[in-house]
Design goal:
Elements (H helix, E strand, L loop, with lengths): L1 H22 L9 E10 L3 E2 L2 E2 L6 E10 L3 E9 L11 E9 L2 E2 L2 E11 L5 E4 L16 E4 L2 E11 L2 E8 L13 E12 L2 E11 L1 E2 L4 E2 L5 E12 L2 E10 L14 E3 L10 E3 L4 E9 L1
Antiparallel strand pairs: 1-4, 1-21, 2-3, 4-5, 5-6, 6-8, 7-8, 8-11, 9-10, 11-12, 12-13, 13-14, 14-17, 15-16, 17-18, 18-21, 19-20
Amino acid sequence: MKRILIALSLAAGLVLPALAAAADPAPVAASPHTFTGNFGLYSEYRFRAIAQTFKKPAIQGGFDYSHASGLYLGNWNSNVNEGAGYPGSNLEMDFYGGWKPTWGDWGLDIGGIYYSYPGSDAIFSTTPALNTVITNPKTLATHTGAVNNKEVYLGGSWKFLSLKYYHSTGDYFSQPGTKGSHYLDLAANFDLGNGWGINGHLGSFRLKNWSIGTDATNANYNDWKLGVTKDISGWVLAASYLATSGKGSCDSVNPGYYCLGNKLPVMAGVATKNAANGTALLSVSKTF
């Protein structure tokens, strides 16, 4: 009898672990693909600190795909005001892609972005300064049709700091002779814990105007931003203040480059505002 009990015990010792192993499914390998979406409401839309919605609210959102290798593709969209330079259009659609690998606390970001404004129909022409001697007829340039912009960028990051350089590969937002315009973005995003965070930014923009052989200095500016965020169950509340050195005075005698109207063309009866002045921004957004 003891031999039978011992045999049964040995058999159970072999069978039960085997059954337990069979019942426990093998771990599923993590997918290298990630898909996310984002949506937000903003008190206004500022692109590189310049007002894009005539200082009115904006609805923004998009979709992103990323691969474990660091490759990514995405689309982002926002309402805009045609007076910001997009006659006939009230929508911005951005398409971008690149490679963003990381090594510990370090990161790299290489890619390109295309800005599109469906329905836009603009006529931009270049008028040389009065004291400019024209020696090449190509300096008189004109753009007719849809507004767009193409840029490549190169960036690096370390922990909560990042630095990125953007370079236009065509006329900057279809303004003739501005190929090579560029923007430098230095940013910091620091996690305080418990859903709180602070962020800061310094930027510098230079508009290249090859049509007259010089920089269009009236369009050049620096900007900065300081803000705070709070994450509540995935919803991010944000408040910030930003300002620029851009020339946006709407003095009728000497208007600044960034004095923009709510309609185009900017003529008598069209409301205008300084699109480069300092302002507070509020938003609520979510990534899903």
